[in-house]
Each structure stands twice: as structure tokens, then as C-alpha cells.
Design a protein that fits this description.
about 180 residues, alpha+beta
Length: about 180
């Protein structure tokens, strides 16, 4: 950690020096994750080494699931740097905010990252946006079984959809008196 804390975020420098935040023409949109085949397979331990802990790793499945089918979740490859992936996604706290993040990789490893969120420039650990992207593209998509998360919304019933029961008795007939 001490060694990483002395490093500068070289991906942030690449993005800012080349104005990659604003330029849309330098990216190719990737349709589907299978096209990003050269992103390395990662173990959960390798992802823990990137995140410097398990907190972001625990958030990753839910965060990914909530964004993967979202129109605001787009994968793009930089034309000038084919080993630089850009992902645009919305904030999990505010749907009006969107972030761009970059992941630099080689055939064997993730070599750097940068996100436009408040903590996205750190090199000791990473933000939840980067962790979820790395987890999904580097680990989850390679698994034979999909990792399921609980969808509580499937079990919620809207009260307006429940038909009213018409009872001939009054409410007082159903009251249970305490002794």
C-alpha cells in the first residue's frame, strides 16, 4: 500500500493529457461483453489485491446487475489505445449523475484505472464503479454459473393490485378482544 500511495494515477494522466473525457470519436462502442475477449481472467484474490479489501468486491454483483441492462452502461474501446476500456454508467445513488471510468489492461493483468467519481483517481484500492466493472469483465463473465443476487422487488406486491374483499360483516365482528 505504501508503494502504491507514492504512485501517480497514470491512467488519469493519459485521459486528461489526451482529453479522452470529452472526445467521443476516439472510441468504438463494444456491443456485448464477448467482444472484449482480451481482458484477462481474474481470480477473486487478484480483484481483492486491486480493491485492497472486500468492501467493493461485495458490492460488485449487485452494482453490476443494477447497471448491466441499463442504457447508460456502455463499453467502449479507445481506438488509439486498444488496451484502454472506457465504461459509462450512472451513479447508484443519483440517477442524474453519470460517471466515466477507464480500465487499462494487458493480456495478463489490470495495469491501471481511473474514474470521474469523487474517489476514482486513487491508486490504493479503487472505487465501486471500477471494482464492479473489473469483477464483471474479469471474473463473472468467465464463470460457467451466473452469480445470482436476490431480487427483492420480485416479491413486493403493490397494494393497488390486490382486489378488495367485500365482507358482509362489519370490522367490529373480526376484532379479537384481549383477556
Amino acid at each position: 500500500m505504501l508503494q502504491r500511495s507514492r504512485q501517480v494515477n497514470h491512467v488519469q494522466q493519459i485521459v486528461e493529457d489526451n482529453n479522452l473525457i470529452r472526445k467521443k470519436a476516439v472510441y468504438t462502442v463494444v456491443n456485448g461483453v464477448d467482444n472484449v475477449l482480451d481482458l484477462p481472467k481474474l481470480t477473486l484474490q487478484e480483484i481483492r489485491d486491486i480493491t485492497m479489501g472486500v468492501y467493493q468486491l461485495k458490492l460488485a454483483p449487485r452494482y453490476t446487475e443494477s447497471h448491466i441492462n441499463d442504457d447508460n452502461y456502455t463499453l467502449q474501446i479507445c481506438k488509439d489505445r486498444p488496451n484502454l476500456l472506457r465504461v459509462k454508467l450512472s451513479s447508484r445513488h443519483s440517477s442524474s449523475k453519470a460517471y466515466s471510468l477507464w480500465v487499462e489492461y494487458s493480456t495478463d493483468d489490470i495495469t491501471g484505472w481511473y474514474c470521474t467519481c469523487k474517489v476514482g483517481a486513487r491508486v490504493v484500492g479503487c472505487c465501486a464503479h471500477i471494482a464492479s466493472t473489473i469483477w464483471y469483465l474479469g471474473h463473472s463473465r468467465w464463470q460457467s454459473e451466473t452469480v445470482g443476487t436476490c431480487r427483492y422487488t420480485e416479491h413486493i406486491v403493490n397494494a393497488k393490485d390486490i382486489p378488495l374483499e367485500t365482507d358482509s360483516g362489519s370490522d367490529s365482528d373480526n376484532v379479537i378482544e384481549e383477556e
